[in-house]
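Allow me, if you will, to draw on your knowledge of protein folds for a short while. I have a record of one protein: its chain in single-letter code and its fold written as discrete structure tokens. The full record is reproduced below for your convenience:
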Amino acid sequence: MSNQVKQLFVAVATYVAIMGASCLLVSPVRATSFTTTVFATGGAVGASQPDSVTFGNNSLWVEYGNGASSTGGSGSSTIVQYGLNGSVLHTYSIAGSVDGLKFNPNTGQVWALQNQDANSTLTIINPTTGTTSTLTYGPIYNSMSGTRGLDDVVFSGNQVFMSVTNPGGGTDPVVVQLTNLASPLLQSGILTSGATGTNLATGLPGTIPATDPDSLKSGPNGSLVLRGEADHALMFINNPGQASQSVSFLNLLNATGASAGAPDDAIFPTAAQGTFYVADTGANTIYAITASGLVPNTSLYADVGNAFNSVNMSTGVVTPIFTGVSPHGIDFVVTTPEPGALGLCLIGLLFCVAQSRRTKAKRVQNS
């Protein structure tokens, strides 16, 4: 090692000692913080009642229900593709009520599930061409009563899961897995409304709170998070569709131990910092809640009642973070962290070492 490089190492070591323990490769965030701003409003695109929100291909996609019938009888929904600066990139009008809206990472397309309470169909949006195509559902759905529908979807690797609304009895499926990706879409039931699960607050077994299932989200390690709206609860499905599948649930409570109200959507953030995009249906507004100090894949957040809340996974108690009119859909977008002071030091060190080696090589070459 040359004297120049040795001196450089000594200088860097001295600097790091002065900076102290706070200098880390990625500067730590020691407390959770949230900052709320308005991202977009429905009025700007002539739409109302925003609900589902999904992120993909560096765009935020928002569904505006516009008061359309959930059985497909009347009205249409507006799907807006936004840039992350809030600019409107594209709008789509889809007949009926779109409730579930998800970006498919396998294809780069967006799935819009229509008419969650009857006459359900699926519209697939191709962002590259700006076109849409409609698919129908197969035998399992067709055998359901005329008051049921497919509500939401999760893509987990090559598997596709959907939530089913309005079960009439304990044997009715509330989550199905698609077994093909062409019209008609075929399904296999993986969870029924009468299934048994573990209450995370008590540790005791019980019937899952799935009399009114709705939104479906992906959770840690390939799990699913299913909302029980009228049940005021959330359900967690581990190893969905496998022989080792298990279910647990939480009844949502306020600080006094009473029911916290109906949840609409729930999500586990996948990074320590990022932005929650929350659709407030009643306010006709999409909020951006920038957060830091999160615990990835462990901390849980949910829209419950009129607030966006943190959820205690041991007790089910919710703590309001932002209060709106009626927050509904949520998605989380990761913010790439900047390197901390020590990270910058190490980057500089590597650059200097590389420069030193190049200089030495030139000297040898010229000698």
